[in-house]
Amino acid sequence: MENQILVKALNKRHTVLEKRILLNSKKVLKYIKRKGLLVEVFIVSDKRIRNLNFKFRAKDTPTNVLSFELKDWPAVDSNRKRVKPIGEVYLAPDYIRRENESLERLLTHGILHLLGYDHKRKGDSIRMENLEKRVFRRFGF
Q1: What DSSP line would sit under 89-105, residue for residue?
Q2: Whether the predicted pLDDT of 17 surpasses 90
Q3: Are strands 81-91 and 76-78 parallel, antiparallel or unpaired?
Q4: pTM for the model
């Protein structure tokens, strides 16, 4: 069963990134052998990500990526395929560019958070970072 990735630029000038993000999201999920998932990726302005960061993390500053994991949501029928929604990733390409970061690396990081990976404890952080490094090497991110 294929994954369903929905990518939406909320700023017209970022629509050129939609296809790139879609293709790379599919690559990441396929590489880590995840199937039947629904992921939503939003490409947003610095202002939008700053508002989200403040609302959900009490940090009044823009950031590069935010992920909002959906836990225990039932599978839904999408295009006649049953997929499980796992959450949303928000990317701020202007911020990412200014900080000289990689859009693909941060996309990967956000997707892994949706899959339950985190970096709160040292062991979890090492596990997540090792998987990220394997993905980066595999695709040249």
Answers
A1: EEE-HHHHHHTT--HHH
A2: yes
A3: antiparallel
A4: 0.90
The total of structural domains in the chain comes to 1
Pick from 114, 94, 98: nearest CA to 41: 114
> Quick check: helix, strand or coil at residue 73?
coil
- Output phi, psi for 77, to 5 deg: -90, 120
C-beta of residue 86 within 8 angstroms of C-beta of residue 39: yes
Tens digits of residue pLDDT in 92-118: 999 999 999 999 999 999 999 999 888
Q: According to DSSP H, which parts of 5-121 are helical?
A: 18-31, 46-57, 93-98, 103-114
Residue in the structure block whose two tokens are 């050129």: 16
CATH number of residue 105's parent domain = 3.40.390.30
Structural domain range at position 40 = 4-139
- Residues 137 and 27: their CA atoms lie apart, in Å, by 13
The one-character DSSP state at 14 is G
